[in-house]
Design goal:
- The chain has about 325 residues and is α+β, with helices and mostly antiparallel strands.
- It folds into 2 domains: about 130 residues, Phosphorylase Kinase, domain 1 (2-Layer Sandwich), CATH 3.30.200.20; about 180 residues, Aminoglycoside 3'-phosphotransferase, Chain: A, domain 2.
- It contains 11 helices and 9 strands.
- Strands 1-2-3-5-4 form a 5-stranded antiparallel beta sheet. Strands 6-9 form a two-stranded antiparallel ribbon.
- Strand 2 and strand 3 form a beta hairpin.
- It is globular, with a radius of gyration of 20 Å.
- The relative contact order is 0.13.
């Protein structure tokens, strides 16, 4: 994790200044909380028109091994190594997604500059973006209103252009029952479902990592959607299912079900349980280690009950098939 905590180097800050424009000067900044796979810093930049805030996102070499092996690493280091191996394509994908989203009503950052291979940024593939106002909000006093706003944004996103790379379905042969599973039969049934053909679905622009860690809030209102590195053209229910998984992980399966019902009301369509199960199966034994890092002390995390909550939601989704 040390590599993503480091403040940008002088060379990286110089690239920021050149990208913002002639006479720009970085006057300060701080690391933004919660990132696991990239280093994200908010920077203050003085220009001839005053001071503006920008966001620099860098993918940093974790130096976890000399041969690229990620076997037997802790979950955080393994994830860092996996992402580092594909950092250039991840940066290019995010830049493409941000450009596509600018034509929609989705509140998202605007792209200022990109260094896909790190040539201009000390070897770290990087993106420079405008700052979207708001903060991650994990303890809303009115959970129902919070869920409704989360659900209402997805149909707006999915109505946009569907140009871009396509998300592949999960390989059923690669699915592993978590060691923490309480009811292995539920996971086995989910794996069997993945061996069947998926339902035909419209393909739309998806966020790819739609959940509360990537949504910003200001004065009780949803103000921004960030981190577009996983954006793909895919069935809309992949975004729904991924958010439901994360809601069950942090809150409860009941909250995840409330989100599904709110989305179905907003979108005027039923969530396909096949794709729902597909997304829930992203959960594995690394999540109890990774989630507290993302939360970063901003909410309580019941780690011991996490697998049971996901398992209960998975059983609910299978019952809808």
């Amino acid at each position: 994790m040390e590599s993503i905590r480091r403040f940008p180097t002088r060379a990286q800050l110089a690239w920021v200044e050149r990208t913002v424009g002639t006479g720009a000067a970085v006057t300060g900044g701080r690391r933004m909380l919660g990132g696991i796979t990239s280093s994200v810093h908010r920077l203050a930049v003085r220009t001839g028109r005053g001071t503006t805030q920008v966001v620099l996102k860098r993918f940093c070499d974790p130096h976890v091994s000399t041969d690229g092996t990620i076997t037997d690493l802790d979950p955080v280091s393994a994830r860092l190594a996996e992402v580092w191996a594909g950092a250039e394509s991840i940066v290019l994908n995010e830049a493409t997604a941000i450009a596509a989203i600018e034509a929609t009503a989705v509140p998202a950052p605007h792209l200022l500059g990109v260094s896909p291979d790190g040539t201009d940024t000390d070897g770290a593939p990087s993106l420079l973006m405008t700052r979207v106002a708001g903060r991650v909000w994990l303890t809303p006093p009115d959970l129902d209103a919070w869920i409704r706003q989360l659900a209402a944004l997805l149909p707006i996103l999915h109505a946009g252009s569907a140009d871009g790379s396509t998300r592949q379905r999960r390989d059923p042969d690669g699915l592993v029952v978590p060691g923490s599973a309480l009811r292995p039969d539920v996971w086995a049934a989910a794996r069997n479902l993945m061996a069947t053909e998926p339902p035909n679905s419209e393909l739309v622009r998806t966020h790819g990592d739609y959940q509360h860690f990537n949504v910003l809030w200001s004065r009780g209102r949803l103000s921004g959607l960030v981190d577009w590195s996983s954006s793909r053209v895919a069935p809309p229910d992949l975004d729904v299912g991924h958010c439901r998984l994360n809601l069950a992980v942090l809150f409860s399966p009941e909250v995840a079900e409330d989100f599904r019902r709110a989305y179905e009301s907003e979108a005027g369509r039923r969530v396909e349980p096949w794709w729902d199960v597909h997304q829930l199966l992203a959960y594995d034994d690394s999540w109890p280690t990774l989630i507290p890092v993302q939360v970063a002390g901003r909410a309580p995390v019941d780690v011991r009950g996490m697998s049971g909550r996901v398992e209960e939601l998975l059983a609910m989704a299978l019952a809808r098939v």
